[in-house]
Design a protein that fits this description.
MATE_fam, 21 helices, MATE_euk, 2 domains, mainly alpha, membrane, globular, xenobiotic transmembrane transporter activity, MATE efflux family protein, single chain
C-alpha cells in the first residue's frame, strides 16, 4: 500500500486501531495454534484471470502458495514445500549448477521495483509525515543494515579468494619443483652441464613459456566472464581457440630451438660446449611445447569454473614422476636407459605430457557438461578476440618476465660472485612471489565471474579484498626477509663472499615486496576486468623506461653500486607498477566494465557470424 493512501487520523484513534489489530492477531493465533493447515486444494490462489485462462486453454496454471499457506513458524506445508522446490528446480537447472560453483555472497540486493512500489518510499505514519526522531531511527536502521550487508560481502569475498588461492599456490610450488629437479640433476654432472641446462631454461622461458602464458592470459578474461553469463558453453570454444593460436606460435619457437646451438654460439657468444649441450636440451623440449600449451589452456578453462584442484592433481601425478625419470635417465642403474645429460629434458617432456593427460581426463569425466560447447567449425571462427587479448597478455606477462632475464644477464657482467648472489636473490624473490601470483589468478577468476554474472558491486568488493590480502601477505614476506637477512644466504651456499653480498642486497628485496605483491595481484584484477592492454603498458613503461635504465646506470656508471644498483632499479620499476595498478583498480567504474563484458562476449559471437 502507498503511504499516502490512508486517511488522516489522530494519534489517539491510530493507537486504538493498533490495539484492536493486536487483539485480533492474538485471537487468530489462539484459534490457529495446534491446528493443521487446510489441504492444498483449499489453498488455491489462482486469480479469476487464471481461471479464465484455464477454461480457455484447458491447462491448469500453477501458482505460488499464498500467505495463508504459511504456518506460524514461517514454514510451508509439506506438499507445498515439494511443489515450491519442484517449481524452483525447473527454473534453469544449468544456471543453478553454475551459480553453485561460484561462492555465494551475502551482499543484499536492492528489491526489484514494481507498479506498487512508492516513488518516495514508505512513510512511518499513516498521514504521510514522520517526526525527526522517527526519521533518524529509520536512517540508522538502514545504515546498520547496509553496514552488516557490506561486512558480509567483504567476508564472503575474502573466504572465496583465499579458498581459490591455496590450491593455486600448491600448483605453482609443484610446478616450480619441475625446474628445481632439473637444476639438481644436471648440477651433479658437472659445471658445463649445469651451465647448459641453465642457459636452456633461460632461453625456453624467454622464447616459449612466457609467450604461451601471455597468450593464455586471454582466457583469464574470457572464460570466467563467459562461464557466469548465459552462455557457459562458450568457455570451451575460447579455450580451444587459444590452444590453436598457441600451436601456431609453437612452429617458429620450434624452429628457433632447433637452430639454437649456432644462435647461442655465434650471436650470444656462449662457449661452444655450453652452446652445444644447450642446443641438445632445447631440441628435446620442442616435444613438450604442445603439451605445455594444452595444459595451460585446460587449466584456465577449469579454473574459470571454480575447479581449482584439478591442476593440483595433475602436478601431484607429474612431480614425483619427473623426479623418478630424472634419476632413471640421468643416473639410473640400467645402462641402456641411462643417457646422461639429455635425460633431463626427456624427463621434463614426459612430465609435461602426463600433466596434459591428467587434465584431459579430469575435463572429460569431472568438468560440468554445460561448460562444453563441443567441437565444430565454430572453434575456427572468431579468433580475432582471443588473439587481441592474447597479444596484450604477452605484453603484460612477457614484458615483466623478460625484464628479469635482462637483469640476470647484466649481473653476469659484474663477476662470478655477483652472478651467484643474483641467482640466490632471484630464486628468493621468485619463491616469495608465488603467493602474489596465486592471488592474481584467483582475483582474475573471481572478478571475471562476477562481471560475467553482471554483479559489478561484488566485483568492486573482490578487487578491494584482493588489495588487502596482497598488502598483508607482502608485509609478512618483507618482515621475514629482514629478520633472516644474515642467515638467508647460508641456505644456498657456504661461500662467505656470496653470503655477505646477499645480506647486503636483501633489504632492497624486502623493500619492494609490498609493491611486487600489489603489482602481481592487481595484474590479475586487470586481466579479470578485460584490461590486459593497460597492464602491458604499465609493465613496459615501468621496466624498460625506468627500472632497467636506472639499474644499469647505478650498477655500471655513476655511483657504480654493482648488484645493489640493479636491484634498486627493479625497486623503482615495481614501485611504479604497484602504485599505478592499485590506483587504477581502485578507480575502475565497475558498472561500466560489467556492460563492457556483455558487449565483449557479444562481440565474440558477431565475429563467428561474420566469418
Amino acid at each position: 500500500m502507498f503511504a499516502g493512501s490512508f486517511p488522516s487520523t489522530s494519534p489517539a484513534s491510530f493507537s486504538r486501531e493498533t490495539s484492536f489489530l493486536q487483539q485480533a492477531v492474538q485471537r487468530g493465533q489462539t484459534s490457529l495454534h495446534g491446528a493443521q493447515l487446510a489441504p492444498d486444494s483449499a489453498l488455491d490462489t489462482t486469480s479469476p484471470a487464471d481461471e479464465e485462462e484455464r477454461g480457455r486453454t484447458g491447462k491448469t496454471l500453477r501458482s505460488r502458495p499464498s500467505r495463508s499457506s504459511v504456518s506460524l513458524e514461517g514454514r510451508l506445508s509439506p506438499t507445498l514445500e515439494r511443489e515450491d522446490e519442484d517449481l524452483t528446480a525447473s527454473e534453469g537447472e544449468g544456471r543453478a549448477e553454475r551459480q553453485a560453483l561460484l561462492p555465494r555472497s551475502d551482499y543484499r540486493a536492492t528489491p526489484r521495483a514494481t507498479e506498487a512500489t512508492p516513488l518516495l518510499g514508505h512513510s512511518a505514519t499513516t498521514d504521510g509525515r514522520t517526526t525527526t526522531a522517527e526519521d533518524a531511527a529509520i536512517r540508522q536502521a538502514r545504515l546498520l543494515d547496509d553496514d552488516e550487508a557490506r561486512r558480509n560481502a567483504y567476508a564472503s569475498e575474502t573466504r572465496t579468494l583465499i579458498g581459490y588461492t591455496i590450491p593455486i599456490l600448491g600448483t605453482h610450488f609443484l610446478e616450480y619443483s619441475l625446474l628445481a629437479s632439473v637444476v639438481v640433476t644436471t648440477g651433479h654432472l658437472g659445471e658445463t652441464e649445469l651451465a647448459a641446462a641453465s642457459l636452456g631454461n633461460l632461453t625456453n622461458n624467454v622464447v616459449a613459456l612466457s609467450v604461451i602464458q601471455g597468450l593464455c592470459a586471454a582466457l583469464d578474461t574470457l572464460c570466467p566472464q563467459a562461464y557466469a553469463s548465459s552462455r557457459p558453453q562458450d568457455t570451451s570454444t575460447y579455450a580451444i581457440r587459444t590452444f590453436l593460436i598457441c600451436l601456431a606460435i609453437c612452429v617458429p619457437q620450434a624452429l628457433f630451438f632447433w637452430n639454437s646451438e649456432w644462435i647461442l654460439r655465434d650471436y650470444l657468444r656462449q662457449e661452444p660446449d655450453v652452446a652445444y649441450r644447450a642446443g641438445q636440451y632445447l631440441r628435446i623440449l620442442i616435444l613438450g611445447l604442445p603439451a605445455y600449451s594444452g595444459f595451460e589452456c585446460i587449466r584456465r578453462w577449469l579454473q574459470a569454473q571454480g575447479l581449482m584442484f584439478a591442476p593440483v592433481l595433475a602436478l601431484v601425478a607429474a612431480a614425483p614422476t619427473n623426479v623418478f625419470f630424472q634419476w632413471l635417465l640421468v643416473w639410473g642403474p640400467v645402462d641402456w636407459l641411462r643417457v646422461g645429460f639429455v635425460g633431463a629434458p626427456i624427463a621434463t617432456v614426459i612430465s609435461l605430457n602426463i600433466m596434459l593427460s591428467v587434465m584431459l581426463a579430469y575435463a572429460a569425466f569431472r568438468a560440468p557438461r554445460d561448460a562444453w560447447g563441443g567441437l565444430g567449425p565454430d572453434v575456427f571462427k572468431g579468433l580475432g578476440l582471443n588473439l587481441r587479448l592474447g597479444i596484450a597478455g604477452v605484453g603484460m606477462v612477457g614484458s615483466e618476465w623478460w625484464a628479469w632475464e635482462v637483469v640476470a644477464l647484466a649481473s653476469s657482467m659484474l663477476g662470478s660472485t655477483a652472478l651467484a648472489a643474483q641467482s640466490v636473490l632471484l630464486t628468493s624473490a621468485s619463491f616469495f612471489y608465488n603467493l602474489a601470483y596465486a592471488l592474481s589468478v584467483a582475483a582474475a577468476v573471481r572478478v571475471g565471474n562476477l562481471l560475467g554474472a553482471q554483479k559489478p558491486h561484488l566485483a568492486r568488493i573482490a578487487s578491494r579484498v584482493t588489495i588487502v590480502i596482497a598488502v598483508i601477505a607482502s608485509a609478512v614476506n618483507s618482515v621475514l626477509l629482514i629478520l633472516l637477512r644474515r642467515s638467508w644466504g647460508t641456505l644456498f651456499t657456504s661461500e662467505p663472499e656470496i653470503i655477505n653480498l646477499v645480506s647486503d642486497v636483501l633489504p632492497l628485496v624486502s623493500a619492494f615486496q609490498l609493491m611486487d605483491g600489489l603489482s602481481g595481484a592487481m595484474g590479475g584484477v586487470l586481466r579479470g576486468a578485460g584490461k590486459p592492454t593497460l597492464g602491458a603498458i604499465i609493465n613496459t613503461a615501468s621496466y624498460y623506461l625506468m627500472g632497467i635504465p636506472i639499474g644499469i646506470f647505478l650498477a655500471f656508471s655513476g655511483p657504480k653500486m654493482g648488484l645493489n644498483g640493479l636491484w634498486l632499479g627493479l625497486t623503482v620499476a615495481l614501485t611504479f607498477t604497484g602504485v599505478s595498478s592499485t590506483w587504477i583498480c581502485w578507480r575502475i567504474n565497475w558498472e561500466y566494465e560489467a556492460e563492457q563484458t556483455r558487449i565483449r562476449l557479444g562481440e565474440g559471437k558477431r565475429d563467428e557470424e561474420e566469418e
